Amino acid sequence: MHTVWKGAISFGLVHVPVKMFSATEDKDISMKYIHKACGTPLSYVRTCQHCEQAVEWEQISRGYEYEPGRFVLFEKEELDALSEASKEIKILDFVDLKEIDPIYFQKTYYLAPGETGSNAYSLLLEAMRQSGKIGIAKVSIRSKSSMAAIRVIEDCIAMETIFYPDEIRSITQVPNLPENPAVNDKELTMAKMLIEQLSTPFEPGKYKDDYRDKVMNMIQQKVAGEEIRVAPEAPKTNVIDLMAALQASLEAAKPSSVPTEAAEPAAAPKPKGRKKAKETVS
Q1: Of 48, 192, 220, 229, which residue is least crowded by CB atoms under 10 Å?
Q2: 3-state class (DSSP) for residue 271
Q3: Whole-number CA gyration radius for the chain
Q4: 75 and 102 share a domain?
């Protein structure tokens, strides 16, 4: 894996040299914009609307628009000078993981011990594992200051960047939320039963990106020159009868009660048995 950052974790007066690696990777299928007329890929060109010409990176500054059309300009070196100690993950507090709402989490990184920090790394890892606590820290990565959660994943210390509280939008901004929701008791009971039937231990390996698989399959078909036909999905109607929808969902979610032996071929039933079953259905 590629090292994205080098520095140290600090808690109290203890420093733990670490290297940082991205824990996740983007597997989205990358596609380019193509000119339909000639099939040529289109390039992203930075142009100045005033000068009507392309602009190279060395000619670009950063600017903050404090009024419409008026900017204050910054050079990269000025912003870098403002960043905090960029080589330190400073743990401020230790808390319980369950106290942090998932809305705060951004991106996960793995932290490996530096060349001289193996003992301190192991000490911090084991102390956090046995205490059940995670660290809340501040870190600067690529001129951006972030909060972070330092925790243990198996035998590795991981860091998850998290949003600052003022970066989380208030729920009061969400439109059309019910003020005094009224819930039917029977529907609520059935909904909880459905949740219970669909509850299972989390097994990430059983989930996959179906859309990505379909796109890759379509790419392979196009490369092979095959004709592609995508069957349209049946339109979904709005659920009007909640009770009926819940009942149908419960029936569909019920585990099969048919024993395994029943899956084996059985002897043909007697004619009398078939006649009797027909009469019972009618």
Answers
A1: 229
A2: helix
A3: 29
A4: no
| 4: enclosing H helix or E strand | strand 3-11
Segment holding 14, helix H or strand E:
strand 14-22
Identify whether 137 is part of a domain: yes
Residue 207 corresponds to which tokens in the numbers above?
A: 């989930």
pTM of the model: 0.70
- The DSSP secondary-structure symbol of 254 reads S
Q: CA end-to-end span of the chain, whole Å? A: 67
Regarding whether 151 and 105 lie in a shared domain, the answer is yes
Two structure tokens written together for 183: 């819930």
Domain boundary among 127, 146, 167: 167
Instruction: Render pLDDT for 57-89 as a digit per residue (tens, 0 to 9).
Output: 888 888 989 889 889 988 877 777 766 546 889
* CA 128 to the chain's CA centroid: 25
pLDDT in tens, 5-63: 888 898 888 889 999 999 988 888 888 888 888 888 888 788 888 888 888 888 888 89
CATH code assigned at 21: 2.40.290.10
Assess whether 117 and 62 both reside in one domain: no
**Do 96 and 146 share a structural domain?**
yes
Examine residue 95 and state whether it is found in any structural domain, yes or no.
Answer: yes
Which residue range(s) make up the domain with 139? 3-25+84-167
What amino acid is encoded at 89 in this protein?
Answer: I
Sorted by sequence, the CB contacts under 8 Å of residue 56 that are 6+ apart come out as: 46
Domain assignment present for residue 161? The answer is yes
Helices (H) and strands (E) in the chain, counts: 6, 11
